Amino acid sequence: MRKHMRMLMRRPVSQTLTLIERSFCSSTTTSFGIKNVTKSNFDAALLDLRQHIRAADFVAIDLEMTGITSAPWREAFELDRFDIRYLKLKDSANKFAVVQLGVCPFRWDPNVSAFLAHPHNFYVFPRQELSISGTSCEFMCQTASLEFLAKYQFDFNACINEGISYMSRGQEEEARRLFTSLYDDVFLDSHPSSKDIKDKPISRVADVLFTERMKSKISDWKNGLLQVRNRDHECQGSRKESFQQFENIFYLMRPAVKLHGFTSRQLRLIQLVTKNHFDDLAYIRVSGEGTSLQQLLVYTDSTTDKDLLMKEVKGILLKETELKIKNAVGLRHVIDLLSSEKKLVVGHNCFLDIAHLYSKFIAPLPATGEDYISSIAKHFPYIIDTKLLLNNNNVFQVIKQKRSTSLAKAFAFLCPDIVSGVKTSGSAYKPCIKVEVQVDDTRSSNWNSGAKHEAGYDAFMTGCVFAQACSHLGIKFESQVPSPSLALEEKLQGCINTLYLSWINGEIIDLTTGKRIVESSGSSDRKYHHSKIFFSNIVLLWGFPSKLKAAEIKECICKVFGQSSVASIYHLDETAVFVKFSKAELVTDFLHLKATLEKNNDPISVLHPLSKILDGGCTCAANYEVYKEICESPISEMLFADQAATIGIKWKTKLFVPKQKESHRETLGPEDGQFTGSTSPSEKEIKKLVSVLDGLSSGRTSNRLADSLHLAQAQIGR
């Protein structure tokens, strides 16, 4: 021990204190809880977190939500176009709540050649802190998500009772506007209601009697007040006298009376009496207990004193407003800190997480994906996705060959020393970067919180995976003192600001340029890899008999259009499918034939191969553009067929040609079966449609349609 102390004394004071702290706060394997932050300790935690983020090399984040998809058909599908994926992302971020936010700053400590992590686990609840802001927040919950949270001992009571509320920047601006409007009523001269009463003569007998009685009572109160002041200020201090609806008080060192039990109309009449008959009295509204406003009549010595009073009242109200709004902003202070410090933000498969941060704390998500992508960089200029980092670098081929790149598995493979708390050998193909953890005054080099699937711990895991990945890429933290910005590190430039749009088909978005690329087939551990999708080849079909399966639908269509006509059938849910045709013209032919069969409803139509799909009379079909219309709706029915009906779709067949100069829609009515269309620049399309429909009535049809009708006719003759 003496030898150890002598060695400490030879070191600089700062290093000595660090080593002493570590000698008392570390152990071989230390287990202490993560820093949980609720509304009761939020202010203190924010002060500490501000210092940690400013000193950090990067900040890892993670979220826990109440759900992911509001309906099965809103899940991510391989046949989703970019605009559809964004609409589904927007729907998820708008409908579900964030219940935990994990924030973990990482700073390289050259004294111990290790990263120092500060994991924070914020409980979040969208409580209505300001009554002025309107109705309370509503959000959806998925039972599977709640069951998952409960399985890992999520504290729902802490979330609801102690969770930190928040306001977005847009909500803050609206709250300030509403407060300004409300506090304008403090000053009588700017009160619109009192002006209205003044301009109109008081005609009601009850109002006349009330105003005369108030004039008398206020005169008596003021005269009594002056008599008391002439008798050596007997009313000095905090003396209160209750005379029914009048209570004597002092306000800002001035005699005043507090008004109780009056109706809003009576209070406006009292304002009018005060304004017209008592120049030395000021009628004001000030904050009372809770969220209520107190109505006061305050005595002033002069016009100058009255102006001074109004100025003081305004100053008090502005300070109260700032405090209320600051408290209501709540958790957004953390997001503002991340944004203003322009730190490298690290997440794992974090496209949805970023969308939640934007919608909850910044502003409503924009209408289009392009606008959203262009706005992210303004608030989070440097983002890295560890899942994409692992999947798109040959250095990590061992992980991709042996394991998936889920967060838990990547953490277990890349960080075995951190997982076990014991130095290991052979389990990883390169040595681990050391990571120490500090929670309040406790610090450990071998930390195990025992808190799986908490947002704070998942953020810690994400940061550890990123630190190890940087080491495997050859980034030397030891030689970077003081450490430069990791966001500018050359070896990371290929992954900075690139996120997965869809993990299913490996589509990646570059947040800097807005360009989208598809991941190469050998760059990820996804099970399937798909060729380019031509959305003009897709028909959306819904409302067919529930017993029909994908193979049966394909068989029916192929009997009419040929065995190679349908590339695949993809279920959205039990009521809807995508039919992917081999050629775009087959989409038009199919929709026209369907409309014709439903229009005729004759024996040929009944025995046609497509009649199995059309059975029941509720089958609807359209091309891919209608799918976007349905996804744009904020409504989310569980079944796709119900969704279409709820948003008002009454037709059975529609062909929608994407807008170029003008949009072109063709619709067949549900009752009369007549085709209607709006003007389109494509006269060729109109002539083709008219030709098909005319041909059906006159016996001139295309070969494919005619063949299908002949097949049905042959079945009649059997």
From TrEMBL:
It comes from Daucus carota subsp. sativus. One of its GO terms (molecular function) is RNA binding. Belongs to the CAF1 family. InterPro entries: CAF1_poly(A)_ribonucleases, RNase_CAF1, RNaseH-like_sf, RNaseH_sf. Its cofactor is a divalent metal cation. SUPFAM superfamilies: Ribonuclease H-like. This is Uncharacterized protein. Gene3D superfamilies: Ribonuclease H-like superfamily/Ribonuclease H. Pfam families: CAF1.
